[in-house]
Protein backbone atom coordinates (compact mmCIF):
# COMPACT_ATOMS: atom_id res chain seq x y z
CA UNK A 1 0.00 0.00 0.00
CA UNK A 2 1.26 3.47 -0.92
CA UNK A 3 2.52 5.41 2.10
CA UNK A 4 1.26 8.90 2.82
CA UNK A 5 4.04 11.48 2.76
CA UNK A 6 3.83 12.06 6.53
CA UNK A 7 4.49 8.34 7.11
CA UNK A 8 7.98 8.49 5.61
CA UNK A 9 11.06 9.07 7.75
CA UNK A 10 12.78 12.47 7.65
CA UNK A 11 15.87 11.15 5.87
CA UNK A 12 13.67 9.56 3.19
CA UNK A 13 11.69 12.77 2.71
CA UNK A 14 14.93 14.75 2.52
CA UNK A 15 16.09 12.56 -0.36
CA UNK A 16 12.70 12.82 -2.12
CA UNK A 17 12.74 16.61 -1.80
CA UNK A 18 16.30 16.83 -3.09
CA UNK A 19 15.34 14.77 -6.16
CA UNK A 20 12.22 16.93 -6.70
CA UNK A 21 9.97 13.87 -6.37
CA UNK A 22 7.78 15.85 -3.95
CA UNK A 23 7.47 19.48 -2.89
CA UNK A 24 7.75 20.81 0.64
CA UNK A 25 4.40 22.57 0.26
CA UNK A 26 2.75 19.27 -0.67
CA UNK A 27 4.42 17.52 2.30
CA UNK A 28 3.45 20.17 4.85
CA UNK A 29 -0.16 20.29 3.65
CA UNK A 30 -0.41 16.50 4.02
CA UNK A 31 1.16 16.80 7.47
CA UNK A 32 -1.60 19.15 8.60
CA UNK A 33 -4.24 16.87 7.10
CA UNK A 34 -2.83 14.12 9.31
CA UNK A 35 -2.82 16.41 12.34
CA UNK A 36 -6.48 17.30 11.77
CA UNK A 37 -7.30 13.60 11.42
CA UNK A 38 -5.42 12.36 14.51
CA UNK A 39 -5.64 15.29 16.95
CA UNK A 40 -9.19 14.57 18.19
CA UNK A 41 -7.86 11.22 19.47
CA UNK A 42 -4.27 12.01 20.48
CA UNK A 43 -4.32 15.69 21.60
CA UNK A 44 -0.58 16.18 21.05
CA UNK A 45 -0.60 19.86 19.97
CA UNK A 46 -1.37 22.96 22.03
CA UNK A 47 -0.82 25.49 19.22
CA UNK A 48 -0.74 24.97 15.46
CA UNK A 49 1.35 27.09 13.08
CA UNK A 50 -0.49 26.02 9.92
CA UNK A 51 -0.67 29.16 7.76
CA UNK A 52 2.91 30.23 8.47
CA UNK A 53 4.19 26.67 7.99
CA UNK A 54 2.58 26.32 4.55
CA UNK A 55 3.88 29.75 3.54
CA UNK A 56 7.39 28.80 4.72
CA UNK A 57 7.21 25.52 2.80
CA UNK A 58 6.27 27.32 -0.42
CA UNK A 59 9.21 29.71 0.03
CA UNK A 60 11.55 26.75 0.53
CA UNK A 61 10.28 25.21 -2.71
CA UNK A 62 11.13 28.47 -4.50
CA UNK A 63 14.65 28.41 -3.04
CA UNK A 64 15.10 24.83 -4.19
CA UNK A 65 13.78 25.63 -7.68
CA UNK A 66 16.27 28.51 -7.98
CA UNK A 67 19.14 26.09 -7.37
CA UNK A 68 19.97 27.26 -3.84
CA UNK A 69 21.95 24.70 -1.83
CA UNK A 70 19.71 23.56 1.04
CA UNK A 71 20.27 21.48 4.17
CA UNK A 72 19.00 17.95 4.69
CA UNK A 73 16.24 19.29 6.96
CA UNK A 74 14.99 21.85 4.43
CA UNK A 75 11.24 21.54 4.02
CA UNK A 76 10.85 18.89 6.74
CA UNK A 77 8.00 19.46 9.28
CA UNK A 78 9.20 19.66 12.90
CA UNK A 79 7.09 19.87 16.08
CA UNK A 80 8.41 21.86 19.07
CA UNK A 81 7.80 21.16 22.76
CA UNK A 82 5.91 24.05 24.34
CA UNK A 83 8.66 25.08 26.76
CA UNK A 84 10.95 26.11 23.87
CA UNK A 85 10.60 29.77 22.90
CA UNK A 86 9.15 30.46 19.44
CA UNK A 87 8.90 34.08 18.29
CA UNK A 88 5.30 34.98 17.50
CA UNK A 89 3.97 31.52 18.45
CA UNK A 90 2.34 31.00 21.85
CA UNK A 91 4.65 29.26 24.34
CA UNK A 92 2.74 28.15 27.43
CA UNK A 93 4.79 25.43 29.16
CA UNK A 94 1.32 23.82 29.41
CA UNK A 95 0.59 26.16 32.33
CA UNK A 96 -2.15 28.63 33.16
CA UNK A 97 0.70 30.90 34.27
CA UNK A 98 1.83 31.34 30.64
CA UNK A 99 -1.47 30.62 28.93
CA UNK A 100 -1.31 33.72 26.71
CA UNK A 101 2.45 34.26 26.53
CA UNK A 102 3.79 34.93 23.02
CA UNK A 103 7.62 35.26 23.00
CA UNK A 104 9.41 38.04 21.16
CA UNK A 105 12.46 35.85 20.48
CA UNK A 106 13.35 32.35 19.33
CA UNK A 107 15.28 29.79 21.31
CA UNK A 108 18.68 29.14 19.74
CA UNK A 109 17.56 25.66 18.64
CA UNK A 110 14.58 27.18 16.81
CA UNK A 111 16.82 29.68 15.03
CA UNK A 112 19.09 26.80 14.04
CA UNK A 113 16.12 24.89 12.61
CA UNK A 114 15.01 27.97 10.70
CA UNK A 115 18.56 28.40 9.37
CA UNK A 116 18.22 24.83 8.07
CA UNK A 117 14.86 25.77 6.47
CA UNK A 118 12.95 23.26 8.60
CA UNK A 119 9.20 23.97 8.90
CA UNK A 120 7.69 24.50 12.38
CA UNK A 121 4.27 22.80 12.56
CA UNK A 122 3.35 23.97 16.06
CA UNK A 123 3.84 23.58 19.81
CA UNK A 124 3.42 20.24 21.55
CA UNK A 125 1.78 19.39 24.85
CA UNK A 126 3.81 18.53 27.95
CA UNK A 127 3.60 18.25 31.72
CA UNK A 128 3.35 21.74 33.20
CA UNK A 129 6.82 23.34 33.29
CA UNK A 130 8.18 19.87 32.34
CA UNK A 131 7.32 18.47 35.77
CA UNK A 132 5.82 15.03 35.35
CA UNK A 133 6.08 11.62 33.75
CA UNK A 134 2.71 11.25 32.04
CA UNK A 135 1.71 14.61 30.43
CA UNK A 136 -1.34 14.52 32.71
CA UNK A 137 -0.07 17.64 34.50
CA UNK A 138 -0.81 19.87 31.50
CA UNK A 139 -3.25 22.66 32.36
CA UNK A 140 -4.87 22.42 28.92
CA UNK A 141 -5.38 18.77 27.96
CA UNK A 142 -4.25 15.18 28.44
CA UNK A 143 -2.30 13.69 25.54
CA UNK A 144 -3.07 10.03 24.78
CA UNK A 145 -0.70 7.24 23.81
CA UNK A 146 -1.24 6.40 20.10
CA UNK A 147 -0.80 2.68 20.88
CA UNK A 148 -3.67 2.75 23.40
CA UNK A 149 -5.76 5.89 23.83
CA UNK A 150 -6.64 4.93 27.41
CA UNK A 151 -2.97 5.17 28.42
CA UNK A 152 -0.40 7.92 28.98
CA UNK A 153 2.29 8.79 26.41
CA UNK A 154 4.84 9.38 29.17
CA UNK A 155 6.30 12.72 30.06
CA UNK A 156 7.15 15.40 30.26
CA UNK A 157 7.67 15.44 26.47
CA UNK A 158 4.55 13.32 25.95
CA UNK A 159 3.17 15.55 23.21
CA UNK A 160 6.43 15.29 21.25
CA UNK A 161 6.61 11.49 21.51
CA UNK A 162 2.91 10.98 20.77
CA UNK A 163 3.03 13.32 17.75
CA UNK A 164 5.99 11.46 16.25
CA UNK A 165 4.42 8.04 16.92
CA UNK A 166 1.06 9.12 15.44
CA UNK A 167 2.79 10.67 12.37
CA UNK A 168 1.55 14.12 13.44
CA UNK A 169 5.17 15.24 13.23
CA UNK A 170 8.00 13.77 11.18
CA UNK A 171 10.42 14.67 13.97
CA UNK A 172 10.12 16.75 17.13
CA UNK A 173 12.11 18.54 19.81
CA UNK A 174 11.65 17.75 23.48
CA UNK A 175 13.52 18.56 26.67
CA UNK A 176 14.96 16.11 29.18
CA UNK A 177 15.60 16.92 32.85
CA UNK A 178 15.29 13.43 34.34
CA UNK A 179 14.08 11.28 31.45
CA UNK A 180 11.53 13.54 29.78
CA UNK A 181 12.61 12.64 26.23
CA UNK A 182 13.62 9.02 26.77
CA UNK A 183 10.70 7.81 28.91
CA UNK A 184 7.93 9.02 26.54
CA UNK A 185 9.99 7.76 23.59
CA UNK A 186 9.99 4.34 25.26
CA UNK A 187 6.25 4.39 25.99
CA UNK A 188 5.37 5.57 22.46
CA UNK A 189 7.75 3.27 20.59
CA UNK A 190 9.98 5.97 19.05
CA UNK A 191 13.64 6.98 19.30
CA UNK A 192 14.57 9.76 21.73
CA UNK A 193 18.02 11.23 22.41
CA UNK A 194 19.07 13.10 25.53
CA UNK A 195 22.35 14.74 24.42
CA UNK A 196 25.34 15.45 26.64
CA UNK A 197 24.73 18.41 28.95
CA UNK A 198 26.17 21.49 27.22
CA UNK A 199 26.09 20.11 23.67
CA UNK A 200 22.79 21.84 22.79
CA UNK A 201 22.04 25.44 23.76
CA UNK A 202 19.44 25.96 26.48
CA UNK A 203 18.91 29.61 25.51
CA UNK A 204 15.16 30.04 25.10
CA UNK A 205 14.27 26.87 27.01
CA UNK A 206 12.04 27.80 29.95
CA UNK A 207 14.12 26.60 32.88
CA UNK A 208 13.03 23.82 35.23
CA UNK A 209 16.38 22.66 36.68
CA UNK A 210 19.17 24.50 34.90
CA UNK A 211 21.98 22.06 35.74
CA UNK A 212 19.96 19.10 34.43
CA UNK A 213 17.80 20.43 31.54
CA UNK A 214 18.76 19.48 27.98
CA UNK A 215 16.95 19.87 24.65
CA UNK A 216 17.01 16.86 22.33
CA UNK A 217 15.38 15.20 19.29
CA UNK A 218 12.72 12.52 18.85
CA UNK A 219 12.09 10.59 15.63
CA UNK A 220 10.81 7.32 14.24
CA UNK A 221 14.33 6.04 13.50
CA UNK A 222 17.93 6.62 14.55
CA UNK A 223 18.84 8.37 11.27
CA UNK A 224 16.14 11.00 11.85
CA UNK A 225 17.37 11.66 15.37
CA UNK A 226 20.90 12.13 14.00
CA UNK A 227 19.64 14.60 11.38
CA UNK A 228 17.90 16.72 14.01
CA UNK A 229 20.74 16.53 16.53
CA UNK A 230 23.24 17.63 13.86
CA UNK A 231 21.07 20.70 13.24
CA UNK A 232 20.69 21.83 16.86
CA UNK A 233 24.01 21.02 18.54
CA UNK A 234 26.90 23.43 18.91
CA UNK A 235 28.33 26.22 21.04
CA UNK A 236 26.14 29.24 21.79
CA UNK A 237 27.46 32.41 23.42
CA UNK A 238 23.95 33.02 24.80
CA UNK A 239 24.22 29.94 27.05
CA UNK A 240 26.98 30.03 29.67
CA UNK A 241 26.79 26.23 30.07
CA UNK A 242 27.24 25.60 26.34
CA UNK A 243 30.38 23.57 25.60
CA UNK A 244 32.93 25.30 23.37
CA UNK A 245 33.92 22.45 21.06
CA UNK A 246 33.47 21.20 17.50
CA UNK A 247 30.87 18.59 16.56
CA UNK A 248 31.16 16.11 13.70
CA UNK A 249 28.03 15.02 11.84
CA UNK A 250 26.37 12.10 13.61
CA UNK A 251 24.41 11.31 10.46
CA UNK A 252 27.53 11.05 8.30
CA UNK A 253 29.32 8.91 10.91
CA UNK A 254 26.41 6.52 11.48
CA UNK A 255 27.77 2.96 11.31
CA UNK A 256 26.03 -0.22 12.52
CA UNK A 257 29.29 -2.15 13.01
CA UNK A 258 29.45 -3.07 16.72
CA UNK A 259 32.26 -5.64 16.46
CA UNK A 260 34.45 -5.22 19.54
CA UNK A 261 31.96 -2.93 21.30
CA UNK A 262 32.08 -3.44 25.09
CA UNK A 263 28.62 -3.30 26.69
CA UNK A 264 28.12 -2.82 30.43
CA UNK A 265 24.99 -4.21 32.11
CA UNK A 266 24.48 -2.57 35.54
CA UNK A 267 22.80 -5.03 37.89
CA UNK A 268 21.05 -2.22 39.80
CA UNK A 269 18.91 -1.40 36.73
CA UNK A 270 17.51 -4.92 36.52
CA UNK A 271 16.06 -5.05 40.03
CA UNK A 272 12.64 -6.17 41.24
CA UNK A 273 11.16 -2.76 40.41
CA UNK A 274 11.57 -3.43 36.68
CA UNK A 275 8.94 -5.60 35.00
CA UNK A 276 10.25 -9.05 34.03
CA UNK A 277 9.07 -8.72 30.41
CA UNK A 278 10.97 -5.43 30.05
CA UNK A 279 14.19 -7.00 31.34
CA UNK A 280 13.71 -9.95 28.99
CA UNK A 281 13.25 -7.71 25.93
CA UNK A 282 16.31 -5.62 26.79
CA UNK A 283 18.51 -8.69 27.28
CA UNK A 284 17.28 -10.22 24.01
CA UNK A 285 18.37 -7.01 22.29
CA UNK A 286 21.75 -7.19 24.01
CA UNK A 287 22.12 -10.80 22.85
CA UNK A 288 21.44 -9.65 19.28
CA UNK A 289 24.28 -7.13 19.60
CA UNK A 290 26.56 -9.87 20.95
CA UNK A 291 25.80 -11.95 17.84
CA UNK A 292 27.05 -8.97 15.81
CA UNK A 293 30.39 -8.98 17.63
CA UNK A 294 29.84 -6.98 20.83
CA UNK A 295 30.89 -8.25 24.26
CA UNK A 296 29.01 -7.96 27.55
CA UNK A 297 30.16 -7.39 31.11
CA UNK A 298 28.07 -7.05 34.26
CA UNK A 299 28.95 -3.88 36.15
CA UNK A 300 27.79 -2.19 39.34
CA UNK A 301 26.64 1.40 39.87
CA UNK A 302 25.79 1.19 43.59
CA UNK A 303 24.76 4.83 44.04
CA UNK A 304 21.81 4.15 41.73
CA UNK A 305 19.84 3.28 44.87
CA UNK A 306 20.04 6.95 45.90
CA UNK A 307 19.63 8.45 42.43
CA UNK A 308 15.92 9.24 42.59
CA UNK A 309 16.27 11.05 45.94
CA UNK A 310 19.34 12.96 44.74
CA UNK A 311 17.61 13.96 41.52
CA UNK A 312 14.42 15.25 43.15
CA UNK A 313 16.30 17.25 45.79
CA UNK A 314 18.49 18.99 43.19
CA UNK A 315 15.75 19.41 40.57
CA UNK A 316 13.18 20.80 43.00
CA UNK A 317 15.72 23.15 44.60
CA UNK A 318 16.57 24.61 41.19
CA UNK A 319 12.89 24.75 40.19
CA UNK A 320 12.09 26.69 43.35
CA UNK A 321 14.62 29.31 42.30
CA UNK A 322 13.81 29.33 38.57
CA UNK A 323 10.04 29.63 38.99
CA UNK A 324 10.33 32.55 41.42
CA UNK A 325 10.28 34.82 38.33
CA UNK A 326 6.59 34.06 37.70
CA UNK A 327 5.03 36.57 40.06
CA UNK A 328 2.42 38.40 37.98
CA UNK A 329 4.45 41.59 37.61
CA UNK A 330 5.89 41.70 34.08
CA UNK A 331 4.27 38.89 32.09
CA UNK A 332 2.15 35.81 32.45
CA UNK A 333 -0.95 35.28 34.56
CA UNK A 334 -1.98 37.86 37.19
CA UNK A 335 -4.79 37.36 39.68
CA UNK A 336 -7.79 39.69 39.58
CA UNK A 337 -8.27 42.58 42.02
CA UNK A 338 -5.32 41.99 44.36
CA UNK A 339 -5.60 43.76 47.71
CA UNK A 340 -1.85 44.37 47.99
CA UNK A 341 1.46 43.49 46.34
CA UNK A 342 1.90 40.48 48.63
CA UNK A 343 -1.67 39.36 47.92
CA UNK A 344 -0.95 39.59 44.18
CA UNK A 345 2.18 37.45 44.53
CA UNK A 346 0.44 34.82 46.64
CA UNK A 347 -2.77 34.54 44.63
CA UNK A 348 -1.06 34.75 41.24
CA UNK A 349 1.25 31.85 42.06
CA UNK A 350 -1.44 29.85 43.85
CA UNK A 351 -3.90 30.22 40.96
CA UNK A 352 -1.36 30.15 38.10
CA UNK A 353 0.60 27.02 39.01
CA UNK A 354 -0.82 23.49 39.01
CA UNK A 355 -0.67 21.04 41.92
CA UNK A 356 2.53 19.20 40.91
CA UNK A 357 4.44 22.43 40.22
CA UNK A 358 3.46 23.83 43.61
CA UNK A 359 4.46 20.55 45.27
CA UNK A 360 7.95 20.75 43.76
CA UNK A 361 8.38 24.46 44.55
CA UNK A 362 7.50 23.75 48.19
CA UNK A 363 9.88 20.78 48.33
CA UNK A 364 12.67 22.80 46.70
CA UNK A 365 12.18 25.76 49.03
CA UNK A 366 12.26 23.39 52.01
CA UNK A 367 15.57 21.71 51.08
CA UNK A 368 17.18 25.12 50.53
CA UNK A 369 15.91 26.59 53.79
CA UNK A 370 18.01 27.34 56.85
CA UNK A 371 18.69 24.20 58.86
CA UNK A 372 17.92 21.83 55.99
CA UNK A 373 20.38 22.97 53.30
CA UNK A 374 23.25 20.91 54.73
CA UNK A 375 21.01 17.97 55.58
CA UNK A 376 19.51 17.62 52.11
CA UNK A 377 20.81 19.81 49.28
CA UNK A 378 24.50 19.70 50.21
CA UNK A 379 24.40 15.91 50.65
CA UNK A 380 22.57 15.51 47.34
CA UNK A 381 25.31 17.49 45.55
CA UNK A 382 27.96 15.26 47.14
CA UNK A 383 26.08 12.16 46.00
CA UNK A 384 25.86 13.66 42.52
CA UNK A 385 29.67 13.75 42.41
CA UNK A 386 29.76 10.10 43.50
CA UNK A 387 27.27 9.09 40.77
CA UNK A 388 29.42 10.86 38.15
CA UNK A 389 32.56 9.15 39.48
CA UNK A 390 30.93 5.70 39.32
CA UNK A 391 29.99 6.21 35.67
CA UNK A 392 33.49 7.51 34.86
CA UNK A 393 34.99 4.42 36.49
CA UNK A 394 32.63 2.11 34.59
CA UNK A 395 33.69 3.65 31.27
CA UNK A 396 37.26 2.53 31.93
CA UNK A 397 36.03 -1.00 31.16
CA UNK A 398 33.05 -0.55 28.80
CA UNK A 399 32.05 1.63 25.84
CA UNK A 400 28.30 1.87 26.47
CA UNK A 401 25.93 0.98 29.30
CA UNK A 402 22.57 -0.59 28.47
CA UNK A 403 19.49 -0.55 30.72
CA UNK A 404 15.71 -0.49 30.38
CA UNK A 405 14.40 3.02 29.69
CA UNK A 406 11.19 2.65 31.70
CA UNK A 407 10.52 -0.07 34.30
CA UNK A 408 7.18 -0.84 32.64
CA UNK A 409 4.97 -0.08 29.64
CA UNK A 410 2.57 2.89 29.42
CA UNK A 411 0.15 2.94 32.35
CA UNK A 412 -3.52 3.88 32.32
CA UNK A 413 -4.56 7.54 32.40
CA UNK A 414 -5.29 8.45 36.02
CA UNK A 415 -3.52 5.41 37.53
CA UNK A 416 -0.66 7.31 39.21
CA UNK A 417 -1.73 10.94 39.13
CA UNK A 418 -2.70 10.93 42.83
CA UNK A 419 0.39 8.97 43.93
CA UNK A 420 3.48 11.19 43.47
CA UNK A 421 5.96 8.54 44.63
CA UNK A 422 4.62 5.98 42.16
CA UNK A 423 4.80 8.61 39.41
CA UNK A 424 8.37 9.58 40.33
CA UNK A 425 9.44 5.91 40.16
CA UNK A 426 8.70 5.95 36.40
CA UNK A 427 12.03 7.79 36.02
CA UNK A 428 14.12 5.37 38.10
CA UNK A 429 16.15 4.22 35.07
CA UNK A 430 16.74 7.65 33.54
CA UNK A 431 17.53 10.24 36.25
CA UNK A 432 21.16 9.18 36.76
CA UNK A 433 21.99 10.17 33.18
CA UNK A 434 21.00 13.79 33.83
CA UNK A 435 22.65 13.78 37.24
CA UNK A 436 25.92 12.70 35.58
CA UNK A 437 25.50 14.92 32.48
CA UNK A 438 25.80 11.97 30.08
CA UNK A 439 24.20 11.28 26.68
CA UNK A 440 21.62 8.50 26.35
CA UNK A 441 19.21 7.27 23.69
CA UNK A 442 16.03 5.22 24.03
CA UNK A 443 15.14 2.83 21.21
CA UNK A 444 12.16 0.44 20.89
CA UNK A 445 13.14 -3.11 21.88
CA UNK A 446 9.88 -5.04 22.15
CA UNK A 447 6.17 -5.04 22.85
CA UNK A 448 3.88 -6.31 25.59
CA UNK A 449 1.23 -8.96 24.92
CA UNK A 450 -1.24 -6.12 24.36
CA UNK A 451 1.05 -4.39 21.84
CA UNK A 452 2.51 -1.64 24.05
CA UNK A 453 6.13 -0.64 23.35
CA UNK A 454 9.13 -1.25 25.60
CA UNK A 455 12.31 0.83 25.35
CA UNK A 456 16.02 0.12 25.77
CA UNK A 457 18.37 2.85 27.01
CA UNK A 458 21.94 3.13 25.72
CA UNK A 459 24.16 5.43 27.82
CA UNK A 460 27.53 6.76 26.66
CA UNK A 461 30.52 8.81 27.71
CA UNK A 462 30.19 12.60 27.70
CA UNK A 463 30.10 13.96 24.13
CA UNK A 464 30.20 10.43 22.68
CA UNK A 465 26.75 10.49 21.09
CA UNK A 466 28.25 8.78 18.05
CA UNK A 467 28.90 5.46 19.84
CA UNK A 468 25.46 5.21 21.44
CA UNK A 469 23.71 6.13 18.19
CA UNK A 470 25.79 3.62 16.21
CA UNK A 471 24.80 0.99 18.79
CA UNK A 472 21.17 2.07 18.54
CA UNK A 473 21.38 1.86 14.74
CA UNK A 474 22.79 -1.68 14.86
CA UNK A 475 19.97 -2.66 17.22
CA UNK A 476 17.37 -0.97 15.03
CA UNK A 477 18.48 -2.84 11.92
CA UNK A 478 18.29 -6.16 13.80
CA UNK A 479 15.03 -5.36 15.60
CA UNK A 480 13.17 -3.90 12.65
CA UNK A 481 12.60 -0.35 13.86
CA UNK A 482 9.39 1.62 14.31
CA UNK A 483 6.05 -0.14 14.15
CA UNK A 484 3.13 2.18 13.47
CA UNK A 485 0.19 2.17 15.94
CA UNK A 486 -3.27 1.37 14.59
CA UNK A 487 -4.98 4.68 15.30
TrEMBL record:
This is Glutamyl-tRNA(Gln) amidotransferase subunit A. Keywords: ATP-binding, Ligase, Nucleotide-binding, Protein biosynthesis. One of its GO terms (cellular component) is glutamyl-tRNA(Gln) amidotransferase complex. The lineage of its organism: Bacteria, Bacillati, Bacillota, Clostridia, Eubacteriales. One of its GO terms (molecular function) is glutaminyl-tRNA synthase (glutamine-hydrolyzing) activity. Allows the formation of correctly charged Gln-tRNA(Gln) through the transamidation of misacylated Glu-tRNA(Gln) in organisms which lack glutaminyl-tRNA synthetase. The reaction takes place in the presence of glutamine and ATP through an activated gamma-phospho-Glu-tRNA(Gln). The active site is at 81 (charge relay system), 156 (charge relay system), 180 (acyl-ester intermediate). PROSITE patterns: AMIDASES. The gene is gatA. Its EC number is 6.3.5.7. Belongs to the amidase family. GatA subfamily. Heterotrimer of A, B and C subunits. Residues 26-469 form the Amidase domain. SUPFAM superfamilies: Amidase signature (AS) enzymes. It comes from Candidatus Faeciplasma gallinarum. InterPro entries: Amidase, Amidase_CS, Amidase_dom, AS_sf, GatA. It catalyses: L-glutamyl-tRNA(Gln) + L-glutamine + ATP + H2O = L-glutaminyl-tRNA(Gln) + L-glutamate + ADP + phosphate + H(+). It is an enzyme of class 6 (ligase).
